Structure prediction request, 212 residues.
Amino acid sequence: MMFDNRESAARLLLKKLSQYKGQEDIVVAGIPRGAMPMAKIIAEELGAELSAVLVHKIPHPFNEELAIGSIGLSGHYELLPYAEAEGISKSYITSKANEQLKKLKKRQQDYGLVTPDYTGKTVIIVDDGIATGATTIGAIHEVRSQSPKKIVLAVPVASEDAAKRIKPMVDELIGLYITPYMMSVGQFFTSFEQVSDEEVIELLHGGNEAAL
Prediction:
């Protein structure tokens, strides 16, 4: 299954989220940066509050592109099972987690974000795709720690392994395409442009058009 771009993926997800339109206490929380254009579209169509849940991957010591876990603004970090299996040192994990936390705090300041309040609300977490699941799991923890009424995860594409791991962590998983074969999220999009910090700031605080 291929998606034209993030906008078309968001429109398809909206068909699965229609029951939440017009409901009170709905928050759509995108995971910056890539998911924020999708979260903006979904929030506007549902008449919901738009938010962002800040998490950052902890990279593998020998492959910066591969996540071994993630950390959120709370300082809590989650590791994927293979991090322990590969014997990655505690000192490396702590060092990288602290480094990424500093980046998150700067991003929070740059984005002009206050700590969101999800207590008692239905939170729809939007991701643009799940490969390892590291950042998504971190985002779920950050939201869950605030005692929401319900967590819905909405994603166009996810790896089968990640989906199995994540499904028990949320109240509802809406995945348009779950695949056993995934090299990268971008392979399932015809257009998968990078989303800049400036675009995220515009989406959160600026005009009505989603930058895609």
Summary: Residues 6-54+115-204 form a domain with the Rossmann fold fold (CATH 3.40.50.2020). The chain is about 35% helix and 25% strand.
